[in-house]
């Protein structure tokens, strides 16, 4: 067995999800799957693709019309990649794995935020990278001084960025983006920017991928799992300059050949016809997010108002328990499941992740349970 694989843990989000199944009557706010159906035009396009026997391998990079449509879609956000610079993947997960496998030599230093989506650290560990965590500001935004400090220590090869963030919902501000661009300009670092949630944002959108100056140092990762609520259909993409693409696509080819053909046709139709559905979904998430924030505020739980994605990451420090202990007790005694912050790295200690991909009714019940549980701890009256 590969020793590095043996030492990597199964994702804490999944581990907790399994625990929930064993508690009867528990409400779960653990999973990052929007509770919307796949938009109807996408479903129809996939059915049509099956009926027309579009079930062969596609080119490794994916069908040309989809890559072209992604290129047009990204231009609306001032991100410029032409269709040859885009590769369709089996979900954002494959994109991340391909990119990191193609880049990392054992011992290479990579900067990874903490807390963050657990795959970054696990994949990098499997590949033998030297992982250096960087912490964030108190509101989970990018702490540029901290990053500069880490970069100054030398030999950093890669920087992973994740905005909007899972688990915190933080996004990048204009100033932070600009400072970051300066830092990358001055240093020989490749940036991997995971923007899986860029369609679900409640403020202005900024990305390092918008810079022409550092274009050759940026690899942009995104996908359709969240935007089109199609997590099980496994489709995503990454974009980068042609030289990098020449290398990355080799790994993609030997890993999967291509993304599922039928789903590629579905995603194409989605970009053409379903962006209105996406806007409605985003608006619904914003209403829910505000509801969750109000409920947490009324319980005097410290929480940062997230600016994107569909997660809230409140502090549970005042309950004097580890995140794991708090979440296990909340599940067993309060019949409510949230993910312990430590599932997202060491800096997640003292927090829990609430996903609000659930109906208003379910959220209302869930917050009643949280409130009742907290009352039993004797902190809330
Ligand atoms: N990146 C982030 C930040 C995520 O939260 C996720 C999934 O939750 C992914 C990537 C992986 O996306 P996919 O389901 O398309 O593989």
Automatic annotation (TrEMBL):
SUPFAM superfamilies: PLP-dependent transferases (SSF53383). GO terms for biological process: amino acid metabolic process. Its cofactor is pyridoxal 5'-phosphate. Residues 27-370 form the Aminotransferase class I/classII large domain. Its EC number is 2.6.1.-. One of its GO terms (molecular function) is pyridoxal phosphate binding. InterPro entries: Aminotransferase_I/II_large, AspAT/PAT-like, NHTrfase_class1_PyrdxlP-BS, PyrdxlP-dep_Trfase, PyrdxlP-dep_Trfase_major, PyrdxlP-dep_Trfase_small. The keyword Transferase applies. Pfam families: Aminotran_1_2. The keyword Transferase applies. Keywords: Aminotransferase, Pyridoxal phosphate, Transferase. Belongs to the class-I pyridoxal-phosphate-dependent aminotransferase family. This is Aminotransferase.
């Amino acid at each position: 067995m590969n020793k590095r694989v043996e030492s990597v843990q199964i994702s804490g989000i999944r581990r907790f999800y399994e625990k929930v199944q064993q508690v009867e009557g528990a409400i779960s706010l653990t999973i990052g799957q929007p509770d919307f159906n796949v938009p109807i035009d996408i479903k129809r396009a996939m059915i049509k693709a099956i009926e027309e026997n579009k079930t062969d391998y596609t080119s490794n990079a994916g069908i040309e019309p989809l890559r072209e449509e992604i290129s047009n879609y990204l231009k609306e956000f001032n991100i410029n990649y032409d269709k040859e610079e885009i590769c369709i993947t089996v979900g954002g997960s494959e994109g991340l794995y391909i990119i990191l496998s193609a880049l990392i030599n054992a011992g290479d230093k990579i900067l990874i935020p903490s807390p963050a989506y657990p795959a970054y650290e696990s994949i990098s560990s499997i590949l033998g990278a030297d992982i250096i965590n960087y912490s964030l500001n108190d509101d989970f935004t990018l702490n540029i001084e901290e990053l500069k400090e880490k970069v100054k220590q030398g030999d950093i090869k890669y920087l992973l960025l994740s905005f909007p963030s899972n688990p915190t919902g933080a996004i990048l501000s204009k100033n932070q983006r600009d400072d970051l661009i300066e830092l990358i300009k001055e240093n020989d670092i490749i940036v991997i920017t995971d923007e899986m949630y860029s369609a679900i944002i409640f403020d202005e959108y900024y990305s390092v991928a918008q810079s022409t100056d550092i274009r050759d140092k940026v690899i942009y990762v995104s996908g359709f799992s969240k935007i089109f609520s199609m997590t099980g259909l496994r489709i995503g993409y990454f974009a980068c300059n042609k030289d990098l693409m020449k290398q990355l696509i080799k790994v993609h080819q030997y890993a999967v050949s291509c993304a599922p053909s039928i789903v590629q046709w579905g995603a194409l139709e989605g970009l053409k016809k379903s962006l209105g559905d996406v806007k409605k979904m985003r608006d619904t998430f914003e209403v829910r997010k505000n509801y969750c924030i109000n409920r947490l505020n009324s319980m005097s739980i410290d929480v940062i108002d997230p600016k994107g994605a569909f997660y809230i990451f409140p502090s549970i420090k005042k309950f004097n328990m580890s995140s794991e202990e708090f979440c296990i007790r909340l599940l067993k005694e309060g019949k409510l499941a949230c993910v312990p912050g430590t599932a997202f790295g060491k800096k997640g200690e003292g927090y829990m992740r609430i996903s609000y991909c659930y109906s208003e009714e379910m959220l209302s019940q869930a917050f009643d349970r949280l409130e009742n549980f907290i009352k039993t701890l004797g902190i809330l009256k």
